[in-house]
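Before the break, one more example. Copy the sequence into your notebook; we will annotate it together after we see the structure.
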Amino acid sequence: MIVYDPWWNPAAEQQAIDRAHRIGQDRPVFVYKLIAAGTVEECILDLQARKADLAARLLEGAATDLALTEADFAALFAPVG
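Here is what the structure looks like once it is written out:
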């Protein structure tokens, strides 16, 4: 399976990957993510990693800095390239 276009929601992407494993597969399924540097997709992967980290900190009770900062907005809306 090749993921060309990452989803904003990492759980939905993982569900699609899991579905590829379930559909009658009796052999291993390999998943490749093709992401070009300096693209929106690269920003999405960074956002997914940050969301996963935030969720882990919330579950551990260690997340006290939940507000988005001005730097967060600047990074999300910065020109790519």
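The first helix runs from residue 10 to 22. The chain has a mean pLDDT of 77. Try to locate both features in your own notes.
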